[in-house]
Every structure is written in C-alpha cells, then in structure tokens.
Amino acid sequence: MRLENRKVIITGAAQGMGGVITRKLADEGAELFLTARQRGPLEELAAELKGRGVKVDLMEGDCTVEKDVEAVVGAALKFFGGRIDVLVNAAGATGPIETPVWELDPDDFLDLLRKNIVGPFLPMKHVLPTMIKQRYGKVVNLGGGSGMRGYRYRAAYSASKWGVRGLTRTAAIEVGEHNINVNAIMPGIVETPRMEKLCRVKAEKRGWTYEQVYEEYLAEMPLHRVTYPEDIANAVIFLSCDDSKNITGQEMVIDGGWCA
Q1: 33-62: burial string, b at 16+ Cβ within 10 Å, e else
Q2: Could you confirm whether 157 is annotated as catalytic?
Q3: How far is residue 33's CA from residue 73's CA, in Å, rounded to a whole number?
Q4: What element of type H or E holds 111?
Q5: What is the CATH number of the domain that holds 245?
Q6: What does the alpha-carbon distance between residue 218 and residue 37 come to, in Å, rounded to a whole number?
Q7: For residue 174, what are the contacts with CB-CB under 8 A and spacing of at least 6?
Q8: How far is the C-alpha of 251 from the C-alpha of 98, rounded, in Å?
Q9: Domain hosting residue 233, numbered range
Q10: Rounded distance, CA 13 to CA 41, Å?
Q11: pLDDT in tens, 13-55
Q12: 151, 153, 157, 214: which one is catalytic?
C-alpha cells in the first residue's frame, strides 16, 4: 500500500468524486481526516471506512471560511498526533452554466472564485506550516480542464480553474526547499451527479436533449469517452505518494484529450 500510515486531510471528502478519492486513499492505507460542509454524508462515509478498519475522523466546515479551516486543521493535527503528510483539496463548485460573459451576475462570478480558489488556498495556508516543520508534504489540488483552455459560456468556472493553476505553481516554488510537492489534477468532464446537472441545464437552455449534450462532449474528446472518478482517484494516489517525489508545480490533465 503506497500510503500506509500517511496522515491525509481531504476537503470535499464525502460526495461525488470526493467520496471515490477518499475510498481510494483508504485502499492505499492512509489515515484520513474528512471535511466538507455537510456532516451527514461525512458520517456515513466515515462509518463505512471504520467498518473496514480505517483510522478516520471528520469535522464539518466550509473551506472558504478561515475559522472553519483553522478548526479542521487543529482537529486533524490532534487526531494524527501532530503530523499531516498529505492535503487533498477536492472541494469545489460549478457556478453559472451556459452563460456568456455579458450575462454573468458579478456576485455569482465572485462567489465561484471564492469557492474554487479561496477553497484550496485556506487549507494550504494552514497545513503548510506543519509540512514545513516536518520537512515533508504533498498537496494535491483539484482544478479542471477548463483551467487549461477557454470554455465557452463558463467564464467564471474557467477563470477559477486558471486561478488554481497559479496558486499551485506559486506555492510549489515557495515550499520546494522544504521537501513539499504541490501539484494539481485537471479533470475534464467526469461522470458524476455534477456532470448530469451540467448536461441537463445545457439541454434545457439550448432546447436539446440530454443525450445530444452528452454526445457533444464525447465528440470533443479524441478518446471519445468521459473521465470517471476512479481515473481521478488514481492520479491523486500517484501525486500523494513518493512515486511522484520529483514532480511539483505541475498540472496532470485527465480529460480524454479535450485539451489536446
């Protein structure tokens, strides 16, 4: 197991892609501290993992609110005995769909930037001092393929994911001398409830069928298939373990070739 006894905090831990990543981390032997805004799904997942013998604890919190993040990191440090080896920032939001720049509500735009950029920034801010002290750490940020290219009618989302790239690369430069790796995974469209919502809203706004929107996505990918949460989870494991010890400040794009 590549993460045996490693102490891992994961945000957005319980639902959708975050839940799949959490289970994969457990499969690889990690000890886990789970956080998300809703406590119920966290408790259900934690109970499942405890039934498998995984060392796991949780705390609900909003990763865009600093006092929540401080509380989560403090509780995790206590649970882990003062050490944090890996931070996985999987929390995020979708924002306005099928909306051109000139129709975007500024409040919606700023809200998405807060969720998708401040969301990973604050956990990094409060975890990195521990990693610096122990001279070891891995940070994995979940960005998006739209942070690698423009994304028509998704300006807020695309801008936020470009922001994740800048945050990741800059942090990697700043903490590299302390033996800390900071990388981002940039998924394309991923087969989750969020993708279903995206296709449904697009179909409604265009007067298309759900299937037409789905097929349009497939047609844009050289591999002609969407990404699955397991694909992302596998990449998280790679960037969280020492197989990737000399990789930092990079984006791993997993999108079926959409950004090719």
Answers
A1: bbbbbeeebbeebbeebeeeebbbbbbbbb
A2: yes
A3: 9
A4: helix 106-113
A5: 3.40.50.720
A6: 32
A7: none
A8: 26
A9: 7-189+228-254
A10: 9
A11: 998 999 999 999 999 999 999 999 999 999 999 999 999 999 9
A12: 157
